[in-house]
Structure formats: structure tokens, C-alpha cells
């Protein structure tokens, strides 16, 4: 495969910037989800009762532990609480009473029929016949068919003895006793009767549930006196029927018949009782012991108990795979939406929020790094609580360097990006710490405070100044959180205040140690790096001073000009000054081809064609970029070196080429710098100051008015040529820049005492003044418009002619 084909294949598989950003978003959301979802703690070890714990195990979340012993006891209590069930069937007792009433009534009726035949009509034929026999014979003789005799055994459905039948017949003779006897039997048997009263009372536990089989109604009975035994009911009946006195043989026989017929109507339903006890036991919910987050389950070196084993098993089983997967999916989607929406809003509405692909990679790295530190901090805080149990583990959270991320982002990028970063960080940190709103507030306020105080830090001591202000804000937030949470002010408040104070300076230390790593990995040029490069003894500047002393001096003057102008318009003065020092380092390779390094009267361009001279001037930009990369000056400085001439026209050699060509057909693009145009205000400042300083050296009599006119003309030409179209300079900024240049150049080219000069000197002076408005022969000065239009040009110059005027 040829190199060309390899290059084509590499491009085919390369991700577009948009796809790369989406991939970064997915990766960041996935990593944060992995970190956030487990709320601290790994799956605990497996132990058996009696084992020795190898480490401290603290609960990372709230969960419930089943207590089988307490559950079983509760089930037993529920079963015992079930009221014994008795079946009550009054129908057999009513049937007995009814049968007795029927037999007595029928026997009484039979006796009355016999009594209707008088003794006179039934005189006995012989003295040996009884009255009843005589009555029977009289009925026969009278021609009356006798009724069948009443059979008490058939009515009562019971085998009666002769004595018992006779006793019933005798009892039925008394017309008054028969209805009373029937009522007493009905009343006596209309009670709740058990077979063994003593056994019933021994099993009595305060109440019973009586289920009436006749109508399926259930009634709770709490009076055990309302239940009688079978023997007691018979005894009461005997007393009611016959009284305590005159218990005749007939009464005994009648009671014997009743004893055979009466049965208990209240019986214990053991089967139904057991069913209900089982149902009550099964309805009991398991007894669960709540274990709170942060509670110590077992300590290292302890002998593990059965209860601790149950807690560990419950902790393991509390990790529901499906639920965790669902939560992880929801959290990842939420994080992606949060980042995307805030990023799009900031990009569309915040002027300075324009992170590039490298910036997004840096932000993702800082996010992940901070969350890893916070996660590790959670585990360490749990371990420290084991060592120092009088300090709550939550107190150690305030030692974590939450604000370090915002400080880094502010130092490397800008305040707008740092604010968006702080907002996202605060929201997600609150989720990491169990959806804690107070932690979110603490992180947000601290991050914004720290980002503000590291603005334009030009010394590492500024980090600790920012740490001091952050410490004060952190401590105030601790007091505010305690007041909001209604927690008592105890010694834990003091621990939190102390840790918040120390944690603020910890942020400064983390940032101080991380900045060099960030500069190296992401090729950023921070203010600290710029301070190192501002040292005039760096190898590249020393070489510039030796090889091209004129360019070196020119760069220093340009640095002074842009630093003051940057302060006037709110740009980065340190970046502008340091970039000015290095903007012309490409001239080291061919220093004698640039006017400030020439030794008159030698001029090497006299022997070269205009196109070659232009090519040499243009090459110093390319050479400067290569030297900057070689000396690792950083991305920002490299871009300023590449942009500081924009696409300006090298007008002197362009005009010279047109004069040589008879037909005047000269390609203008051959005499323009390759660009790009300045993209930042600092790069535009260096373009303006470079041209102004070069032109200022041509002034023979640098009065304030002439300096102002020269600055006015150069800024107008660069503006009209469109070199400032792609940066953020406004007309107001150009006015402030011109004022700053006038003030600085007036100080540099101050008025000197004039001495009388010969006439030829005066003539030379007049010629030099006429040359002010022409571009220097060998300088890469500001260009004329590509397509000059006299009307537009004149109008634009009129519009801008007051630049620098107070």
C-alpha cells in the first residue's frame, strides 16, 4: 500500500470534530456514572460466624436486614393471638326439647282419652280386672275403635326401659307439670353447652369466637360463665324440673332419659382454628432491622457474629442488578442531557465560551480526575472514622479539593468556561454524595470564589492568596449549611471549619503541582508559563539578541506597547507582552535581510528580485513557528507568531515588482503573508504595535502630533485592509489602543533640545519627513487594501481619523 493510499485510509477512519465531541460526551457520562452509582463501599467479604474480620466494613448505603428470630417470635405471637373457634349448633338441643315436649303431650292426650270412659260404663265384670282393662273392654263393647298406643321410644328415637316408659306416662298425667316441664327443658337446653366444662375453662384465654352453624354468624364471647358443661346443664334441669326435694324414682328415670338425649351444642373447631393461626402467622411481615449509611458493621480483628453475618449478607443482596442497571442508564442519560444543554446554551449565549476540541478533552480530564479524588476521599474518610471515631466521617469531606478544578480551568482557559464548569461540577458532586444539596452549594460557591481570585495570576503566590479567600468563604458556607440543616452546634462544627480552612489551601497546592502537568499534556500556555518565558535569558531570546540585536530591541519595545494597550482594552497583558518578545524569532535565520539588523550602506535586497525578497520576508513567519515548536513555547504563542502579519501585503516589493513588469501583471498573492488573520485581540495588538513601532523609527521629528498622525494612519490602513475582521476588537478598542500607543511612543521618542544644523542637514530632514508616509524598504509593514476603492478608503479614513484623540 502506497503512502498516499495509507493517508487516504487514515482520513477515511478519522472522526470529525462533531463526532469527537459526541464521543467525549458519552465517555464522560459513562465514567461519571461508573463513579457515582455505587454510593461508596465495595462488595464486602464473605464471612462465617466465628471468623476474624480482615478489614473494617462500613455500610455505604441504607439497607434493611431481616431478623428471622424476631420474625418467628412475631409469627408465634400472631398465631397465639388468634381466638379459639367453637362451633355452636342450637338445632340438636331444640330437637331434644321438642321431642320431650311431643312425647309428654301425646302421652297426656292418650291418658285423657282413656279417662273419658267413666268407671260406671266400664264396670269390671270381675273383680280381678283393673280399671284400665275394664275401660278398654267398655270401649270395645261400645263399638269404638281404639287409637294406637303412644310409643315414647319411637318419638324420642331412643330405646327406653319399662321403668323409663312408665315414668314418662306418670309424668304426663299431671296437666300442670307437662307444659312447665316443656318450658323448662327448652330454657335449660337453650344455652351454650360443652362436653367438659373443666377442660374448657382450663383452655380459656379471655375470649372465644363462636361460629353459629345455623346462620353462619360469628360472635366473640368474653364471659366464660355463659358457657356450661353438660353435667351442669343436667343438674340445673333436675333442679328446675323436680326441685332439690322429693327426687322420686320416676324423676331419676326421666333424668336418665334426658341424659341419653342431651348432647353438647358448643364444640371446639380445632381444624379451623389451626387454619386461621397459620394464616395469621403467614400474614406477618418479616422483621427488618434498618442499617444506616456509614454504620460500622464489623471492625478489623473482631470475631464475626451471626448477626454481623446477616448484615453482610443483606448488604450483598441489596445490590439489585436490574435496579442498578436501570439507575445507571437513567443517570447516564441525565448527565449527557445536562452537559449538552448547558454547553449549547453557553456556546450560543456567552460570548467568550468557545471551547475547542483540546479544551473539551482537558475539561473531561479534570472532571474525571476530581470525581476519582472525591470517590477515594469517601473511602479514606470511612477509614479515618475507624481510627478517630469521635470525628464524623462527613467532616473529612471538607478536606477534598473541590475548587481545584475551577481554579485550573480559569488559569488555563477563561472565567466563562470556569463558571459553566463549576455549575456542572456542583450538581454532579451533590449526586455523588447521596443527592446532597448542601454539598452542591458548598462546591459551587467555593469553585466560583477560587476561579475569581486566580484571574491573571502571574505568580504562584497568587494561588495561596486565592486559597486564603477560598478558606474564608468555605468556613462561612459551613456555618450557613449548619444553620440550614438544623443540626446542633457541637464539636463537629469545629472539625468542619478546620477542615474547610485546610482544604482551601489544599486546592492551591493541588493546582500548583498540576499546572506543569497540564501545560505538558495539553500544550497550554498558562500565565505561569508566560512568566517563565518572559525571562529575557531564555535560550531563544539570547540567540535573538546575539544574531539579530535590532529585532531584539524592536521586540522589547513592541512588548511594552502591547502590554499597556492590552490593559486598556481588557485583554491579557502578560500574553501580549511575552508573545511580542517572540513574534519575530524567525528572523534569527536570516537577520541581515531585515532593516533593523542591516549595516548601512549594505542592502542585500539590492541583488535580489522583488519576489525573492518578499519570499524571504514571508519565510520569517514560518521559521518563527518552527523555532517556537522546537523550543516548546506553547500553542498560544505559536498561533500569535503565525498570525501577527495576517495576510498583509508587502507593498514596497509589490510596487517594485509592478515597476519592473512592463505589462504590470504581478500576482498580488505572491506578496502577501499566508495568514491567517489575527484570531485574538492579543495577536491583533501585536500586528498593530509591530507596524507602529517600525514606522515610529522613521520619524525625524517625533512630536506628539506627528506620532498621533502616524499611529492614526497605520491603524486605519490595517483596519481598511480587513486584517482585524476575525478578532474581537471594536472601534472603541481601537480608540483606546491608539491612545495607549500615542502615550507610550511620546514617552519613548521624547523631545530633545534642538541644536543649530547646517543647511544640508535641513534639506535631508525635509526629505526624511516626506518619507514618513511611505513604507520602510525592508519592513513587513501594513498593507494597502487589496482592491482599493478611493471613495470607500477616504470615507473610512475620515471615520477613523480621530483615533487616539481624547
TrEMBL record:
Keywords, alphabetical: Membrane, Transmembrane, Transmembrane helix
This protein's record includes keyword Transmembrane: yes
InterPro entries: HD/PDEase_dom, HD_domain, HDIG_dom, Metal-dep_PHydrolase_7TM_extra, Metal-dep_PHydrolase_7TM_intra, PgpH_phosphodiesterase
Domain HD: 551-695
SUPFAM superfamilies: HD-domain/PDEase-like (SSF109604)
Membrane-spanning parts: 324-342, 362-384, 396-413, 425-454, 466-485, 497-518
Residue ranges with Basic and acidic residues bias: 759-789
Pfam families: 7TM-7TMR_HD, 7TMR-HDED, HD
Ranges where the record places region Disordered: 759-806
GO molecular function: hydrolase activity
NCBIfam families: HDIG (TIGR00277)
Protein's name in the database: Metal dependent phosphohydrolase
Species this protein is from: Desulfuromonas acetoxidans (strain DSM 684 / 11070)
The organism's taxonomic lineage, starting at the top: Bacteria, Pseudomonadati, Thermodesulfobacteriota, Desulfuromonadia, Desulfuromonadales
Amino acid at each position: 500500500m502506497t503512502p498516499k493510499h495509507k493517508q487516504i485510509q487514515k482520513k477515511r477512519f478519522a472522526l470529525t470534530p462533531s463526532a469527537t465531541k459526541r464521543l467525549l460526551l458519552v465517555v464522560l457520562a459513562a465514567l461519571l456514572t461508573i463513579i457515582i452509582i455505587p454510593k461508596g463501599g465495595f462488595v464486602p467479604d464473605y464471612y462465617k460466624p466465628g471468623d476474624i474480620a480482615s478489614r473494617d466494613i462500613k455500610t455505604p448505603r441504607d439497607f434493611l436486614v431481616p431478623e428471622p428470630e424476631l420474625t418467628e417470635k412475631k409469627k408465634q405471637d400472631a398465631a397465639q393471638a388468634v381466638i379459639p373457634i367453637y362451633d355452636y349448633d342450637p338445632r340438636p338441643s331444640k330437637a331434644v326439647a321438642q321431642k320431650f315436649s311431643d312425647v309428654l303431650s301425646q302421652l297426656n292426650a292418650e291418658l285423657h282419652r282413656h279417662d273419658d270412659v267413666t268407671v260406671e260404663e266400664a264396670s269390671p265384670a270381675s273383680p280381678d280386672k283393673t280399671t284400665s282393662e275394664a275401660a278398654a273392654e267398655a270401649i270395645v263393647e261400645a263399638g269404638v275403635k281404639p287409637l294406637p298406643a303412644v310409643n315414647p321410644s319411637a318419638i324420642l328415637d331412643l330405646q327406653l326401659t319399662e321403668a323409663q316408659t312408665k315414668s314418662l306416662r306418670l309424668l304426663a298425667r299431671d296437666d300442670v307439670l307437662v307444659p312447665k316441664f316443656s318450658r323448662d327443658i327448652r330454657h335449660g337446653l337453650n344455652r351454650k353447652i360443652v362436653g367438659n366444662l373443666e377442660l374448657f375453662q382450663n383452655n380459656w384465654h379471655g375470649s372465644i369466637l363462636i361460629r353459629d352453624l345455623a346462620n353462619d354468624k360469628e360472635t366473640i364471647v368474653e364471659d366464660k360463665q355463659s358457657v356450661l358443661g353438660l353435667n351442669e346443664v343436667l343438674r340445673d334441669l333436675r333442679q328446675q324440673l323436680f326441685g332439690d326435694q322429693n327426687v322420686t324414682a320416676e324423676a331419676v328415670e326421666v333424668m336418665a332419659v334426658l341424659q341419653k338425649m342431651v348432647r353438647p351444642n358448643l364444640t371446639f373447631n380445632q381444624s379451623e382454628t389451626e387454619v386461621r393461626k397459620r394464616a395469621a402467622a403467614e400474614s406477618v411481615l418479616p422483621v427488618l432491622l434498618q442499617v444506616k449509611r456509614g454504620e460500622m458493621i464489623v471492625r478489623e480483628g473482631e470475631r464475626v457474629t451471626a448477626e454481623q453475618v446477616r448484615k453482610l449478607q443483606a448488604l450483598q443482596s441489596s445490590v439489585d442488578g436490574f435496579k442498578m442497571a436501570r439507575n445507571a442508564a437513567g443517570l447516564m442519560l441525565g448527565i449527557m442531557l445536562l452537559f449538552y444543554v448547558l454547553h449549547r446554551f453557553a456556546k450560543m449565549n456567552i460570548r467568550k465560551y468557545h471551547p475547542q476540541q483540546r479544551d473539551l478533552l482537558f475539561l473531561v480530564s479534570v472532571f474525571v480526575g476530581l470525581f476519582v479524588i472525591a470517590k477515594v476521599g469517601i473511602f479514606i474518610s470511612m477509614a479515618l472514622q475507624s481510627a478517630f471515631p469521635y470525628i464524623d466521617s462527613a467532616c473529612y469531606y471538607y478536606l477534598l479539593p473541590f475548587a481545584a478544578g475551577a481554579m485550573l480551568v480559569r488559569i488555563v482557559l477563561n472565567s466563562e468556561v470556569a463558571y459553566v464548569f463549576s455549575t456542572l461540577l456542583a450538581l454532579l458532586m451533590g449526586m455523588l454524595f447521596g443527592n446532597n444539596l448542601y454539598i452542591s452549594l458548598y462546591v459551587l460557591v467555593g469553585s466560583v470564589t477560587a476561579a475569581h481570585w486566580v484571574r491573571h495570576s502571574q505568580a504562584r503566590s497568587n494561588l495561596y492568596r486565592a486559597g486564603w479567600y477560598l478558606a474564608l468563604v468555605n468556613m462561612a458556607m459551613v456555618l450557613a449549611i449548619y444553620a440550614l440543616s438544623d443540626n446542633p452546634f457541637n464539636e463537629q462544627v469545629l472539625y468542619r471549619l478546620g477542615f474547610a480552612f485546610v482544604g482551601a489551601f489544599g486546592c492551591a497546592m493541588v493546582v500548583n503541582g498540576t499546572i506543569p502537568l497540564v501545560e505538558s499534556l495539553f500544550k497550554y500556555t498558562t500565565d505561569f508559563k508566560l512568566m517563565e518565558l518572559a525571562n529575557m535569558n531564555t535560550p531563544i531570546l539570547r540567540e535573538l539578541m546575539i544574531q539579530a540585536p535590532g529585532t531584539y530591541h524592536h521586540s522589547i519595545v513592541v512588548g511594552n506597547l502591547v502590554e499597556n494597550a492590552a490593559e486598556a482594552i481588557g485583554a491579557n497583558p502578560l500574553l501580549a507582552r511575552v508573545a511580542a518578545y517572540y513574534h519575530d524569532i524567525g528572523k534569527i535565520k536570516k537577520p541581515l535581510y531585515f532593516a533593523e539588523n542591516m549595516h548601512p550602506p549594505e542592502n542585500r535586497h539590492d541583488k535580489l528580485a522583488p519576489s525573492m525578497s518578499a519570499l524571504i520576508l514571508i519565510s520569517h513567519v514560518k521559521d518563527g513557528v518552527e523555532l517556537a515548536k522546537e523550543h516548546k513555547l506553547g500553542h498560544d504563542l505559536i498561533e500569535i507568531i503565525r498570525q501577527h502579519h495576517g495576510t498583509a501585503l508587502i507593498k514596497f516589493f509589490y510596487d517594485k515588482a509592478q515597476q519592473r513588469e512592463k505589462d504590470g501583471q504581478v500576482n498580488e498573492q505572491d506578496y502577501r503573508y499566508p495568514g491567517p488573520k489575527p484570531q485574538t485581540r492579543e495577536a491583533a495588538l501585536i500586528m498593530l504595535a509591530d507596524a507602529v513601532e517600525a514606522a515610529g523609527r522613521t520619524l525625524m521629528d517625533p512630536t506628539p502630533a506627528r506620532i498621533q498622525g502616524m499611529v492614526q494612519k497605520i491603524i486605519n490602513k490595517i483596519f481598511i485592509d480587513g486584517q482585524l475582521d476575525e478578532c474581537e476588537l471594536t472601534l472603541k478598542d481601537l480608540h483606546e489602543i491608539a491612545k495607549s500607543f500615542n502615550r507610550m511612543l511620546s514617552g519613548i521618542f521624547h523631545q530633545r533640545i534642538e541644536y543649530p544644523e547646517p543647511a544640508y542637514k535641513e534639506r535631508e530632514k525635509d526629505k526624511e519627513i516626506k518619507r514618513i508616509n511611505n513604507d520602510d524598504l525592508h519592513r513587513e509593514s501594513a498593507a494597502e487594501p487589496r482592491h482599493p476603492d478611493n471613495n470607500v478608503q477616504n470615507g473610512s479614513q475620515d471615520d477613523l481619523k480621530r483615533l487616539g484623540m481624547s
